[in-house]
Amino acid sequence: MSKFLLFGFLTGLAIFAAGFVLGVARTVLLLPYMAEWLAVLIEMPVILLACWMIIKYVIRRQSVTDRKAVRLIFGATAFATLLLCEWVMVVMLLEESAMTFFDRLVTGAGLIGLAGQLLIVVMPLWVKSEKSDTGTESR
Question: What is the DSSP letter of 99?
Fold first, then answer.
C-alpha cells in the first residue's frame, strides 16, 4: 500500500507542475482580457486533460491495482499533495498569509478550480488496466 501512496504523491507533484505552467499561461494570456473565473473555466479542460494523462500514465506504468480502495487512496493522495504544494507556494514563496490561500478557495474562480481538482480523487477509478484496453482480459 505504501508504494501507492508514493505514486499518489509523485502524481500530485506532476499535476502541480502542469498546473503551475498553465496557471502562468492563464495569468499572462487570459487574465488581462477577462474575469478570473472565466479564465479558469477556459483553462479547466486543458488541466483536466493533463491530469488524466498523468494519472493514466502512472497507473499503467506502475501497474496500480484495479482495487477501488487503492485507486481512491492513490487519487486522494495526489489531491492532498496538490493542495499542499499550492499552499506552500502561497505561504512560502509568495509570502502571503495561510488564510489568503483559503480565502482564494471560496471565490468564484477558486471554487471552479477546487471542483476540477476534486476530480483527481476519482479519476483513477476511470482508468482501465492495459489488459482490459487490449481486449485480452475476457478471452
Answer: H
> Measured between alpha carbons, how far is 45 from 59 in angstroms, rounded to an integer?
21
- pLDDT at res. 85: 95
Q: What is the largest CA-CA distance in the chain?
A: 58
Tell me: the pLDDT tens digits for 66-77? 999 999 999 999
Grid coordinates representing 51 are 491530469
Judge whether 77 and 91 are in contact, CB under 8 Å: no
For 59-80, b/e burial (b = at least 16 CB within 10 A) is: beeeebeeeeebbebbbbbbbe
Whole-angstrom Cα distance, residue 15 to residue 39? 19
